[in-house]
Amino acid sequence: MRETYHEQLQQLVDDLVAMSHFVGIAISRATESLLEADLNLAEQVIAADDELNSIDHQLEERCLDISALQQPVATDLRMVMSALRMSSSLERMGDLAAHVAKQTRLRYPAHAIPDELRDTFAEMGRAASAVAEKTGEVIATRDLELAGEIERHDDTMDRLHRELFSIVLAPTWSHGVEAAIDVTLLSRYYERFADHAVNVTRQVVHVTTGEPYSSSPSQL
Amino acid sequence: MRETYHEQLQQLVDDLVAMSHFVGIAISRATESLLEADLNLAEQVIAADDELNSIDHQLEERCLDISALQQPVATDLRMVMSALRMSSSLERMGDLAAHVAKQTRLRYPAHAIPDELRDTFAEMGRAASAVAEKTGEVIATRDLELAGEIERHDDTMDRLHRELFSIVLAPTWSHGVEAAIDVTLLSRYYERFADHAVNVTRQVVHVTTGEPYSSSPSQL
């Protein structure tokens, strides 16, 4: 019985790691769809999001089963409770990747972003994939130094987000209001994606150290 | 002991209702600060958000205590688990109200929105306050018909959100790119606020009926 219990807890961790990996691939593909105006890839990302929602449901049921049948206490209980919140954040990261892909679809066959911003969005995409992968590692290993690295990626994302604002607001912006809005919303999806990753890793810190959890405030 | 247990569960419900009320006031004041360019009111909303974060922490600790000491099962356990997710959504609604207030502060002493959009934002503010108040009622009463009303308010919000898009994208838009971006982001904060309320009420439906939970996808 004890072994089953530990297996169940490990399964929770494995599911969260799998979700992190999933959203890392989703944001990476969504970014490629955005940069290449690849409708097919965008549709794949959008369709895959349902699967992530199912994993989130299953995880919630697993948390309920573990709590009801095993009655965990102390750190284990905190882990089960935090898993629910982490799963919500990861599910939301999947939504945001799907939002990026939907923007590709909305503007297809045109590109959703002006050519001069390709590099910035490519960099945002790389930062987002990196935070998702590292989030999985932090969940698996509880390595708190790695959690610090995610906060630094998040700082990079905030910087890129502000850079994009200053580009679309500059007098040299020649792409009009619609493109400015597209860029602003897309940039915000990436910024929120990284914020949610920070929230997940802070939950891990919270479970591991017992320090109070504080959520990452999103940038304006 | 039994009475204490029920009191504890009721306290969870009471906290969630109080949080709903809190965010209803926050979004109502944030909207007023936006419409009147009232810096003082904006600062109050921003400062009050910390209090909401504290309630969220306390609620999490309460959920842990109830689970550890009382070992709830069945619907009670589902309620405790869902309370954590509802609290996260309500905390996020508070963040969004603070975002609106921060936009007021950023543009002060100017108005953050053009005069011609005052009515639309006033209507968004009323819809947002209404969903927050009704969310509290749904949590308190588990009245599923009322949950349906919240979905309808959310539809109103989505309509207003789309209306604002068409206004800022019309050739008649004369306020430039910065104002268009401000309006887009503000509109998105309101739209997300209502989405989170829908998510909270769907959690209540989930706890009450056992039907699978599905999160509300945000509008692009």
Structure description:
2 copies of one chain form a homodimer. Chain A has 220 residues and is mainly α. The first copy, chain A, has a single domain (2-209), classed as Methane Monooxygenase Hydroxylase, Chain G, domain 1, CATH 1.20.58. In chain A, 84% of the residues lie in helices and 0% in strands. The first copy, chain A, is built from 6 helices and no strands. Chain A has helices at residues 2-36, 39-70, 74-107, 118-141, 144-169, 176-209. The radius of gyration of chain A is 19 Å and the shape is elongated. The model of chain A has no long low-confidence stretch (mean pLDDT 93). Chain A binds chain B through residues 53, 57, 60, 63-64, 67-68, 71, 73-74, 77-78, 81, 84-85, 88, 91, 95, 99, 102-103, 106, 165, 168-169, 173, 177-178, 180-181, 184-185, 188, 212-215, 217-218, 220, and chain B through 53, 57, 60, 63-64, 67-68, 71, 73-74, 77-78, 81, 84-85, 88, 91, 95, 99, 102-103, 106, 165, 168-169, 173, 177-178, 180-181, 184-185, 188, 212-215, 217-218, 220.
CATH superfamily of chain A: Phosphate transport system protein phou homolog 2, domain 2
What is the radius of gyration of chain A? 19 Å
Q: Please report the total strand number of chain A as a whole number.
A: 0
* Helix/sheet category of chain A: mainly alpha
Largest sheet of chain A: none
The parts of chain A where pLDDT drops under 50 for at least 5 residues are none
CATH architecture of chain A: Up-down Bundle
Helices of chain A, by number, come to 6
Strand content of chain A: under 5%
